[in-house]
Amino acid sequence: MVNLVLNENMKIFRRARTWILIALMAAFVIFGNFVMWNENKSAQGEGWQTELTQQKEMWNDRLKNSSPDDESQTYYKEQIEVIDYHLEHNIRSEQGTMWNGINESAGLGILITIFTIIIAGDIVAAEFATGTIKLLLIRPANRLKILLSKYIAMLLFGLVLLFTLFVVSVLMNGILYGFKDIGLPLVSMINGHIVEQNMVLNLWKTYMLNGIATVMYVTIAFMISSVFRSSAMSIGFSIGILFAGNILLEALHRYEWSKYLLFANTDLTQYLDGRPFQDGMTLSFSIGVLVVYFLAFNLISWLMFTRRDVTA
Amino acid sequence: MSSEPVISLQNVTKRVGRKTIIDNLTFDVPQGEIFGFLGPNGAGKTTTIRMIVGLIAMTNGQILIKGKNIKTEFEQAIRHVGAIVENPEMYKYLTGYHNLIHYARMVPGVTKERIDEVVSLVKLENRIHEKVRKYSLGMRQRLGVAQALLHRPSLLILDEPTNGLDPEGIRELRDYLRYLTRTEGITVVVSSHLLSEMELMCDRVAILQRGKLIDVKPIEYFTKGSDTFQTYRIEAQMPEQAIKGIRQMAGVQEIKISEDGLIEVTTEREQIPDILEELMRNHIRIYGVQMVRRSLEDGFLELTGGGQIG
Ligand SMILES: Nc1ncnc2c1ncn2[C@@H]1O[C@H](COP(=O)(O)OP(=O)(O)O)[C@@H](O)[C@H]1O
Ligand SMILES: [Mg+2]
Hints:
The complex is a heterodimer. Chain A is mainly alpha-helical. Chain A is built from twelve helices and two strands. Chain A has one domain. Helix content of chain A is 72%, strand content 4%. The longest helix of chain A is centred in the middle third of the chain and has 35 residues. Chain A starts with a helix and ends in a 5-residue tail after the last helix. In chain A, 31% of the residues are buried. Chain B has two domains: 217 residues, P-loop containing nucleotide triphosphate hydrolases (Rossmann fold, 3-Layer(aba) Sandwich); 67 residues, Alpha-Beta Plaits, CATH 3.30.70. Chain B contains eleven helices and 14 strands. Chain B has a six-stranded mixed β-sheet, sandwiched between helices. A four-stranded antiparallel β-sheet of chain B has the order 2-1-4-5. Chain B is elongated and about 75 Å long. The site of magnesium ion (MG) has 5 residues of chain B, from helix 1.
């Protein structure tokens, strides 16, 4: 099994195309970070105290003047406490430090999804298109293992892109903003207590949450690749629904059953923000839906790959 | 050990929809034989080979490789097989060497030394570290043979291996297959739509037509003929005059003058001395007598009742 994965990695990483995708990923991060840095120049000085004080006043205003409901009230109060903590302990806010850019860069994870879809769409289908599948399947390794090794190799490629994103965004923002705030903690309110968290851990938590959607989309691409044995169809369709998903959700929002749609559940941050797509949806509901989709997609790939005749 | 066939097909049938592509094939190939699979394009050679190596499922019947069922004991059965199915498609963006590493990793016990051994066997030492993209068809064919031999299979299956080879390459391949059967006791199944190539390579030939097995015959059957009548060519003076006397003789089935002016007579072997005696009695000078080998095509046409050979 390890050997099979090594083989798939060899076929991925000994191709120029793969390195072009990785280079593109790095280029997008560098470019995106530069643009963001250029736009945020104002907050980069040492004026963070003034800025936080202004923010605190804004929350205070809202508390007094807009007669908020209970939930908003506690939220505003928490924000004020967090700001006070920053000011008292002389911990600067993320604004104007390298961490602002790094955390914003997590949004570029969409590129990981797209580039991994390209690899996923090709990884099974290309073997059929070129006919190499014949020599691959006449070895003492069963088809399920071969399929699994491809799936693992595809996810590993996604991880390589994620590391690229991480390393390049840390370096680039460090260069732009300076590395001096690299040890900055994340101050936030958890269960009514102020806590300082490690920025890096928090960043990887964000990556992993975003990764759930990525895994679902690349699994779809992988499934289409195995079922239809066509790279173009797989890549086209998967990227299509990646972008159409949210539009579709808007359109179907009024139907209750739309909560069972994959797209309604891929973004788990909806529960962190406390704003689920539809009332009554819970974190465990979404996880359940995701697991069912995940198993279904992989089961279909497996059945189609192992049972069908190879006539390539 | 050698009494058990290396490969055995029993009532193998493949239907796709209502179409029967392979119809009830049954045959065995013993160890050490070079077995030919002969038939026109579309006869079902590749389909049969795909079933043997488990790429497609059969509708009926079973296939055993060294006694292991390809369907229910796939891994044990396929371990003994090295194959090229249709074209030897390799990963073009990898070097020949990395292609071999790829397949070597899939079977336990294939060492670096073994890789080097097969590379030199197929004479690719000088180009093995180049990308397959740059290989000629002949080189790809040889790399294909190399990957098929990596794990020292007992059964080597080559689907139309002569495609893309020049006559010199075909001769080399033939010698090489002979060498493998003699020294390693390997069994070879090759397919072809060309009779002349089968004649050069095979011990026995199965003839396939529209998915049906017409017959399995030793190669001599096609070249030597099965009956007692043979055609002989006699080079003699004044052939027109000469055949007048012979035509009436007992045991002469057919007689004519060929385009190059030789007498062609079809008769039994025992008649030849009598015919020569008759000619000499008529003072016709004789320069030579030769038996005409029946062509493979003749044998084939006889077997298939004049069917197309492709
Ligand atoms: N999957 C399939 N579906 C329908 N017909 C097929 C399929 N595969 C092969 N055939 C048909 O089966 C016949 C045998 O094909 P093939 O085995 O490739 O012949 P050969 O290798 O002897 O040239 C052909 O007529 C081909 O069109
Ligand atoms: Mg064929």
